């Protein structure tokens, strides 16, 4: 086994544990709910196994649903994010993605920020849409998506800088 696999397994367990222990208990003003566990899907290696990512995303969402008692909405949101991830890479990075020279752990550039922003937006919109499951709650879904996306991005960027490897 290689170190990338161990890194991904450690990241999976750590982000899921932090989400379940700390962030599942946070809800600000009824609209803001941070979900930094999706960093596992965002930081998964570009040249990694695509079906492995889909399987890991399913497990990530399924475990979140078990601890959140949410009936499958996290699973669906994680699978949708994992499925659209290559398209988001292609949109954000263009030719750099085709040559697989993208590393999200490096300095936060506009391309990396746009990738993280659109990834979190897609996940949160699917999650809150499935949670409400009525078109009459569209405004509530949009407000919760935007506010939670903002808060999740702030937490995610902080986490990325905390786990960023030191370069000497």
Please describe what this structure looks like.
With 168 residues, this protein is mostly helical. 70% of the residues lie in helices and 0% in strands. The protein has seven helices and no strands. It has helices at 3-21, 39-43, 50-68, 73-93, 95-98, 110-132, 138-163. It is globular, with a radius of gyration of 15 Å. The protein starts with a helix and ends in a 5-residue tail after the last helix. The model has no long low-confidence stretch (mean pLDDT 84).
Mean pLDDT figure: 84
Largest sheet: none
Q: Note poorly predicted spans.
A: none
Question: What structural class do you assign from the helix and strand content?
Answer: mainly alpha
Q: Which percent band covers the strand fraction?
A: under 5%
Order of helices and strands: HHHHHHH
Rg over alpha carbons: 15 Å
The percentage helix is 55-70%
Quaternary structure classification: single chain
Shape: globular
Task: Count the beta strands.
Answer: 0
In DSSP terms (H or I, runs of 4 or more residues), the helix count works out at 7
Distance between the termini: 27 Å
Short description:
70% of the residues lie in helices and 0% in strands.
